[in-house]
Amino acid sequence: MGAYLRPDRLSEALAALRRRHTVLAGGTDFYPARVGRAIDEDILDITAIASLRGISTSAVGWRLGATTTWSELLEADLPPLFDGLRQAAREVGGRQIQNTGTLAGNLCNASPAADGVPPLLALDAEVELAGPSGARRLPLASFITGNRRTALAPGELMVAIHIASPAHEARSAFLKLGARRYLVISIAMAAATLEIEGGRIASARIAVRAAEGLPFFPAASCAFSAFATIR
What we know:
The chain has nine helices and 13 strands.
């Protein structure tokens, strides 16, 4: 095995990334991909960095820490705006995976079957990245660039996901099609967020993503929410 680092400060993690490391958060995709072979790369485990965990709210919206787990999301006090993301959280494997898997891990892995992506696209989420040149924010629709591909630059880490407060009362929902009801990779997924004003739909955002058995459409799965915003 290569070197294993588990810093407790973001600055230490970014310093470590001056050299090539494989970033480990929940590890729910990392270990299955290496069954039957030695782990010979250098590992940077970011789960001890307190600033990367937890959910906070402010006047402008919500900040979801990168290493917040799906179980922590389900237990958080969040408004109906997040119902779709909660529904997706219940689809992320079994309870053991939900206890360990992280929000940022789901996004940075960039699998076309990632359950968290459609509801976050429909929420018009932005990701916060930190690296050698400082911090930057990027729409999630621009962050995932294809199958297992992201806009992460060398030396960068995702540190948070940001959701802006809607202008009106809002709700969301998520649906997943799989070969069976539970513990299955997605065939296709869809999420929608509606903002309501005076009993009418003031805004609608829809995200669709295809995975197993269907082609991968970057425009539909990564930028469709921007084109499908209706006001």
